[in-house]
Design goal:
Order of helices and strands: HHEEHEHEHEHEHEEE
Number of helices: 7
Largest sheet: 7 strands, mixed
Radius of gyration: 16 Å
Helix content: 25-40%
CATH topology: Rossmann fold
Mean pLDDT: 95
């Protein structure tokens, strides 16, 4: 398989048409070796417009979704980032190239080990993967906050207030929120004094992150 040609086609045929036009993001996707974060049995799928199976019943998101999330989060070199859901470590690697430090939480120990190994192989010393329980992951990491940016690499029914409160003033949280078949990537911005603005960015569907409770639809 010609990985470089496949990578080029992924960027030109999947990612650019999905409104990912930030040249820094496109350059990064051309540089970070996505195939090194894919299990060997599925390496031929590394550049496909599809979710790639991972151990523990998890998946890597489609390349276009990772790219769009990365573009919308607008991480800067001086910033500290929290990721919830490390998976194979690919998004953490992309973030690591843009941020000062990345902390990635993963509730499956096998995936945490896999992501850590992949990130070491990629030479990213500023990314830390921590194995946590699903409930701990849903709480974020208050002891290591506040963060400039938080990204949730999967979907949730709703974003807990406790996660939003781990943002610095001006900080951003990006999550895929909702129920199938309608989910939306939603950007929350800490506007100060405990207030948070939110913007819906695009529609997509992603597997659930574990540990996040579904809010009650009933109020008494």
């Amino acid at each position: 398989m010609n990985f470089e040609l496949a990578r080029y086609n992924m960027i030109e045929q999947q990612i650019r048409p999905w409104e990912v036009l930030d040249s820094a993001v496109l350059d990064l996707l051309a540089t970070v070796r996505r195939e090194d974060f894919v299990p060997p049995a599925y390496r031929a799928m590394a550049f496909a417009d599809a979710q790639v199976p991972l151990p523990c019943g998890q998946v890597m998101l489609e390349p276009r979704v990772d790219a769009r999330l990365l573009q919308e989060l607008q991480v800067q070199r001086h910033e500290r980032v929290l990721e919830i859901g490390a998976g194979s470590g690919f998004m953490a690697a992309l973030l690591g190239h843009r941020a000062q430090h990345v902390l990635s939480l993963e509730c499956h120990a096998e995936l945490a080990r896999m992501a850590s190994a992949n990130l070491r192989h990629a030479g990213l010393a500023n990314v830390e993967v921590r194995a946590v329980t699903a409930a701990q992951g849903a709480q974020g990491s208050p002891v290591h906050g506040p963060f400039d940016a938080i990204v949730m690499s999967g979907s949730v029914p709703a974003v807990p207030r406790g996660l939003l409160e781990q943002l610095k003033p001006g900080g951003r949280l990006l999550a895929i929120v909702g129920e199938e078949p309608i989910m939306r990537a939603r950007l929350f911005t800490h506007s100060g004094n405990g207030a948070f603005a939110q913007t819906d960015l695009f529609d997509t569907v992603a597997p659930r992150l574990e540990g996040f409770a579904t809010p009650s639809r009933f109020h008494f």
